[in-house]
Write a structure and sequence with these properties.
The structure holds 2 protein chains of 2 kinds. Chain A folds into 2 domains: 92 residues, no CATH class; 94 residues, Alpha-Beta Plaits (2-Layer Sandwich), CATH 3.30.70. Chain A is built from 5 helices and 5 strands, in the order αααββαββαβ. In chain A, helix 4 crosses helix 5. In chain A, a hairpin with a 2-residue loop joins strand 1 and strand 2. By secondary structure, chain A is of the alpha+beta class. Chain B is α+β, with helices and mostly antiparallel strands. In chain B, strands 1, 4, 5 and 6 form a 4-stranded mixed β-sheet that branches. In chain B, strands 2-3 form a two-stranded antiparallel ribbon. Chain B has one domain: 2-Layer Sandwich (Alpha-Beta Plaits). Classes of the chains: A alpha+beta, B alpha+beta. At the A-B interface, strand 1, strand 2 and helix 4 of A face helix 2 and strand 6 of B.
């Protein structure tokens, strides 16, 4: 989320830069005109973009808002802007998710190592043709693991789900890898579309 | 700087001497190392705020990974990191198939 916020800030700053350039060119316009060059004059701007036009428009808008004369569309846009700002603020203030799985104080395990071990345990089952393991490190010790195993259509998914779950749990317990949440999903797939067709 | 390199060298030796440590990790996208004049120690990062050791453990394990990592951490911390906390990161598990042959 920080990257998104950074992009928003960069765009805002770019806009400010462009405005700054316009103001600069406008400010040196009379000087350039005096030198005989074609300068930029504020008077040449369309009336809606002139500073007096802008301030008058803004003043009118604020007066209407204070008097309660806000259109439905304006109200919706203002609420949406406020909500987006609030969401961005919360996401920016939220501490980032750690990159590594915490075991104890000062000891960590990479997410890829946990993923490899969970994949290995899942694919030890003969019925599993392909697996997709997602590991997320948490702030507290332990990893959140989501396993999606592909099996042939028609297999007993209930039994397989429990077996795969037990196998992954046992393998990671044996290694001492802490788990905070383990979810296993079994999906029926066409063997022609999976990594392994036959085991 | 020379002290950092010396500490990195000692940490590397201590980690590799621990039973269950297969190797020190070198990094996948960014090299994990402490740099000195004409020399570098891979697998250990001695920074101003912490000393970090990246290890690859051997399978079968002599003990669970958290215990092994804690043992490495204690060994490295005892080397005198000048108050800097020591962190151990397990990067991978290496299966040594022919170990008992």
């Amino acid at each position: 989320m920080r990257i998104f916020n950074r992009i928003v800030v960069i765009l805002l700053l770019a806009g400010l830069f462009v405005l700054g350039v316009f103001v600069f060119l406008a400010s040196i316009g009379p000087f350039l005109n005096a030198l005989g060059a074609q300068g930029t004059d504020l008077q040449n701007l369309p009336s809606s973009l002139r500073p007096d036009g802008l301030t008058a428009g803004l003043r009118n808008y604020l007066t209407n808002t204070e008097n309660g004369n806000v259109g439905v569309l304006d109200a919706v846009v203002l609420i949406a802007v406020a909500l987006v700002g609030l969401i961005l603020l919360v996401l920016e203030l939220k501490p980032p998710t750690p990159r590594r799985v915490r075991m104890r104080q000062g000891t960590y395990l990479t997410q890829s190592a946990v993923r490899d071990e969970a994949t290995k345990a899942t694919e030890q089952k003969h019925e599993v043709l392909q697996s997709n393991v997602k590991v997320k490190a948490k702030r507290r010790p332990g990893a959140k693991i989501n396993v999606t195993a592909s099996v042939r259509a028609g297999e007993d998914t209930q039994v397989l789900q429990s077996e795969v779950r037990d196998r992954v749990q046992q393998h990671l317990d044996r290694m001492g890898i802490p788990i905070s949440n383990l979810k296993v999903q079994i999906v029926g797939s066409d063997p022609r579309e999976t990594k392994t067709r036959v085991k | 700087m020379a002290d950092d390199l010396q500490l990195a060298r000692a940490a590397s030796e201590a980690a590799l001497a621990t039973d269950g440590v297969y190797a020190l990790a070198t990094g996948r996208f960014v090299e994990i190392a402490t740099y000195g004049a004409g020399e570098k120690v891979t697998g250990v990062v001695v920074g101003p705020d912490e000393v970090r050791v990246h290890i690859v453990v051997r399978w079968p394990l002599p003990e669970p990974i958290p215990t092994l990592a804690e043992r490495v951490r204690e060994k490295v911390a005892s080397l005198g990191a000048a108050g800097r906390p020591t962190t151990v990161v397990v990067e991978d598990v290496e299966v040594v198939r022919d170990e008992n042959l």
